[in-house]
Amino acid sequence: MLLLRRCHSLTRFGPLKTQRHQVAPAVVSCAVRLWSSSSEDRRSYQRVHGPSWRHGLAGLLAGTGAVLAYGLHHHKAEQQDTVRAKTIEKTSAFPIFSQEEVTSHRSLEDGVWVTYKGGVYDITEFVAMHPGGDKILLAAGGALEPFWALYAVHNQEHVLEMLSEYKVGELNADDLKKQKAVQTSDPYSSEPERHPALRINNLKPFNAEPPPEILSDSFITPSAIFFKRNHLPVPQVDTASYQLHVEGLPGGVLTLSLEELKTQFPKHTVTATLQCAGNRRSEMNEVKQVKGLNWGIAAISNATWSGARLRDVMLAAGYGPDVAQRAFHVQFEGLDKDVTGSTYGASIPLNKAVSEEGDVLLAYEMNGQDLPADHGYPVRVVVPGTVGARNVKWLGKIIVSAEESKSHWQQNDYKGFSPGTDWDTVDFKSAPAIQELPIQSAITSPANGAVVDRSLEEVTVKGYAWSGGGREVVRVDVSLDGGKTWQVAQLRSSEKGQAPEPSPPPGRAWAWKLWEVTAPLPAEAQELEIVCKAVDNSYNMQPDTVPPIWNLRGVLSNAWHRVTVVIREDGSEE
Questions:
Q1: Which residues constitute the domain of residue 494?
Q2: Peptide bond before 500: cis, by omega within 30 degrees of 0?
Q3: Is 373 part of a structural domain of the chain?
Q4: 179/102 Cα distance (integer angstroms)
Q5: What mean pLDDT comes out for the span 13-29?
Q6: Other Cβ atoms closer than 10 A to 72
Q7: What's the rounded Cα separation, in Å, for the pair 29 and 5?
Q8: How much is the pLDDT for 178?
Q9: Strands (E), 424-560
Q10: Residue 139: helix, strand or coil by DSSP?
Q11: What distance in Å separates the CA atoms of residue 460 and residue 477, rounded to the nearest whole number?
Q12: Is residue 349 located within the same domain as residue 206?
């Protein structure tokens, strides 16, 4: 678990932008000699302390730990770090490495290097002993701090003492600053810092998903690793002057400040899963190329949202029960704009917006804190059970209307088509905009291509399942042989160790279920094709293959999820 403490703040430090530095051969040679010496020292230490050294470390790290409360470092602390780095670079007996050199060591074959507070560490030998498994490799070639911050167990002196034995050098002062040249003309120059564990699908605008093996660790996804789906630059919003406008049909106009939204309306809290329409698009790309971000299985996350009910705000604006006679849609406009000044927009059906059971929120909190910038600060719409594209962030305007939003993302995107429709024949007006999403599940562990030792005798499979429209997942079936035989997974609707949440009212199952099953390894099998499929309370089931649901935008990808696992026989070096 050297992995997950890697941030002075979970949201602060992103992947380092490095400059090219040539490392002199003498320095590299020095590093090799130094590493050889330090390896010998470690072996000596292990001989003296025996098995207790490893067992003590395993006992120390084995707990999953609690997600830490985290905040940003102050500018003064950064300045002190820079001064310290310059001093170390001048006086350290260790060789100095550039970030580029560290980044080149990201695998067991090339060595696994990490940095921590300016030091460079070769932890290759430790990877096999890591109680958290190969998750530690997520930090390979980068800083430990953002990962370690996820688990409090790392904040102990013994862990730092163990880390110190793997030190091979220092990071040069320029790279330690982690400062990027800012182009003021770049509309993305003020983007928030992101957690480096996120797997980036697009940098500008920023779109990223967490590693699957982390995704299913927590029922409530930490905000820092909740998937990010931005269509435009993140706007800089002055909360002192922020106003939310409600308008549309004659007879209803309201303008609210953030403070008024918080104080004039009851605060409601909903736990809801958001999923991008393109989640698992990469599997459609394997069948035939589609247009869109190449999302894996983790463009989905679960959070607790708090704010005012949209229904209450509409009533305050004068849109009472009779509004359904005049309007059919509620449109949302964000404060994020493109170069032409056009804003992101979307709409939902009026009956969803005004229903007491719809639970639509004008949220200003996520997981008990103010919304992070990437997730819509200061206010966003949360439409439980509905595709992520309708959950408009940085909300600036609500429009009650007889028509859908005219936005590109409502009219000419996020729609499903026949596998036979191509870009020459597609007519976006012929298909409805996606609202509720279909039943979905995926395997988060083991990963595709993973190796399982025969000596373990069994394999544990984990994943998530969710269905749109408030339909509750009631079963997840898992197969180890490609779908020939099946077993039922255990479902979980709370954090591990906590009492399970009671079943939600019918039609209001907004949160995902995490699931797990442990099964014996088949005696004769050399390879496993692990498959999962979910069933909701309307008995909707996932299709077994991708080709029949393939579409040119790669949306609504919810076929059985499959991973292949190799069984390593005793003594095998595979």
A1: 439-568
A2: no
A3: yes
A4: 17
A5: 36
A6: 13
A7: 31
A8: 63
A9: 440-445, 451-453, 458-466, 473-479, 487-488, 490-492, 513-520, 527-536
A10: helix
A11: 14
A12: yes
Q: Which pLDDT tens digit goes with each residue over 366-398?
A: 999 999 999 999 999 999 999 999 999 999 999
Q: Is the pLDDT of residue 30 over 80?
A: no
Q: What is the pLDDT of residue 468?
A: 98
Degrees, nearest 5: CA angle 70-14-118? 80
- Whether residues 391 and 488 share a domain: the answer is no
Pair (219, 328) in one structural domain: yes
Q: What is the pLDDT at residue 161?
A: 86
Can you read off the two tokens belonging to residue 472?
Answer: 């509750």
Lowest mean pLDDT among 76-85, 122-131, 357-366: 76-85
Q: Is the pLDDT of residue 135 over 80?
A: no
Q: Do 270 and 511 meet the contact criterion of CB atoms below 8 Å apart? A: no
Q: Residue 520's domain is classified under what CATH number?
A: 2.60.40.650
| The three-state (H, E, C) secondary structure of 465-501, written as one string | EECCCCCCEEEEEEECECCCCCEECEEECCCCCCCCC
318-357 residue pLDDT tens: 998 889 899 999 999 999 998 778 899 999 999 999 999 9
Domain of 119, CATH number, reads 3.10.120.10
> Counting runs of H as helices and runs of E as strands, what totals does the chain give?
13, 27
- 344 CB burial (10 A radius; 0-12, 13-18, 19+): buried
Contacts of 215 (CB under 8 A, 6+ apart): 221, 225, 298, 300, 301, 444, 464
What does the pLDDT read at residue 35?
A: 37
Query: Which residues are annotated as catalytic?
Result: 130, 154, 229, 276, 414
Token readout for 545 is 């293959």
Domain count, the chain: 3
Summarised one tens digit per residue, pLDDT across range 161-192 is: 889 999 999 999 888 876 233 334 678 888 99
400 and 258 in a single domain? The answer is yes
**What CATH number does the domain containing 231 carry?**
3.90.420.10
35, 447, 535, 560 from 123: Cα distances, Å:
11, 22, 43, 37
Neighbour tally for 289: CB within 10 Å: 9
In a domain, 41, yes or no: no
Residue 140 placed within a domain: yes
Residue 54 lies in a domain: no
Segments of 132-267 assigned E as strands:
167-171, 199-202, 207-209, 228-229, 244-248, 254-256
